[in-house]
Amino acid sequence: xxxxxxxxxxxxxxxxxxxxxxxxxxxxxxxxxxxxxxxxxxxxxxxxxxxxxxxxxxxxxxxxxxxxxxxxxxxxxxxxxxxxxx
Amino acid sequence: xxxxxxxxxxxxxxxxxxxxxxxxxxxxxxxxxxxxxxxxxxxxxxxxxxxxxxxxxxxxxxxxxxxxxxxxxxxxxxxxxxxxxxxxxxxxxxxxxxxxxxxxxxxxxxxxxxxxxxxxxxxxxxxxxxxxxxxxxxxxxxxxxxxxxxxxxxxxxxxxxxxxxxxxxxxxxxxxxxxxxxxxxxxxxxxxxxxxxxxxxxxxxxxxxxxxxxxxxxxxxxxxxxxxxxxxxxxxxxxxxxxxxxxxxxxxxxxxxxxxxxxxxxxxxxxxxxxxxxxxxxxxxxxxxxxxxxxxxxxxxxxxxxxxxxxxxxxxxxxxxxxxxxxxxxxxxxxxxxxxxxxxxxxxxxxxxxxxxxxxxxxxxxxxxxxxxxxxxxxxxxxxxxxxxxxxxxxxxxxxxxxxxxxxxxxxxxxxx
Lengths: 86, 417
Fold this sequence. Notes:
The structure holds 2 protein chains of 2 kinds.
Chain A: E1 2-5, E2 9-12, E3 17-21, H1 34-42, E4 50-56, E5 64-70, E6 76-81
Antiparallel strand pairs in A: 1-2, 3-4, 4-5, 5-6
Chain B: H1 5-13, E1 31-37, H2 41-54, E2 59-62, E3 78-79, H3 88-100, H4 102-106, E4 117-121, H5 124-139, E5 145-148, H6 149-155, E6 170-174, E7 178-179, H7 182-195, E8 199-201, E9 206-212, E10 215-221, E11 224-233, H8 239-244, E12 253-264, E13 272-275, E14 280-284, E15 289-300, H9 308-321, E16 330-340, E17 347-350, E18 356-360, H10 370-383, H11 397-400
Enzyme class (chain B): oxidoreductase
Domain Rhodanese (chain B): 34-78
Subcellular location (chain B): Cytoplasm
């Protein structure tokens, strides 16, 4: 699997650290309540098909990248800097 | 159909014409007391113990493919009870005891081989941890022996002891650990359940879970609707999709775990050997193939096949530990879908929907759990209360923080298990 870093270009997957589903970017408000926080920290949609992950380009430029990817085929569909997604 | 020595001899002398199918192939009925979604090891053992221990035989196991075609038929077959934390320790201890009586119980040769498992350590700190874990294993009623490097050299002389990076300081041995023939475990439970009246229905995919007024009433399937008083979701790597049919989101991420087997070799590895520092574990099958694996591919996947970076990593770790296997040819590899929970431990619990039960979160270690998982799940479904060996395997432990079983000490967080 190869991932295109928006800054560095296409790179080997081993240059990146996987940090799970990109819902990590949708952090609840501090006072959102225990239920919202439990859901955010632990529960996942975990789709079979298209998903959005958060990857850290630790062996490259250090960017956080949102990767749109198919979990059934490992096809990488799109990549985007995490800071550009909000 | 029962196996016996006499029967084997008789069949051998008469052309093996008397053997019959191991389980019935019924059409689904309109309604059951219990419907089990998933015909893998855990689903089949649940059905078996529901019938045997609780007399509940109006049960259907619905499998979208064929029985035992998922992870139970593709794993590294290791059976052990070397867990540490309360919750896991009594559960896997319970499972190992069930393994030890399984062949007699099922009248089926599952080739359970207590060849011993050695977990290596490579530093003083790891030795201390191994001693502590060994004491915990003895406290839970199981066996553990600490091996010095001199003892280890006599037992397994072929390891690379003096390597620069991870010199071997010793190992923790559990003699009662070992392996079992994974397919036979599925087949034995299937036959035992079918003989007791359970309907095992293959090629039957569940497409919906019916819930009315907070109570489960049945399932929709590719072979029609089936009513049920109770429904158990036991679908391992597919747990998220199954639970979504009941409107639930689970604390599960699905990952792929690869494993490998070589050509058949003469007997050379007598134990199960685990090399935690390199993420590598190996045993030799009774056919002679070296069976080994490593870590997850480390990103969410349903591909049922891995990618090459992890293949390379596993081969490197294997060569680091035991250079002697370098000439062995790898015949095949495969990838299974693992239902990874945030704390690396399983979930056996009721759900918030009346009559709907959940069994998932087996991570990369479901095979050794098959007997206890089914035993405890059947107890829960039959009685409505958790079995004492599975009392801490609750779904709400992430929300409450009570009883989190984080064996790796990495925190109850996705992506770290």
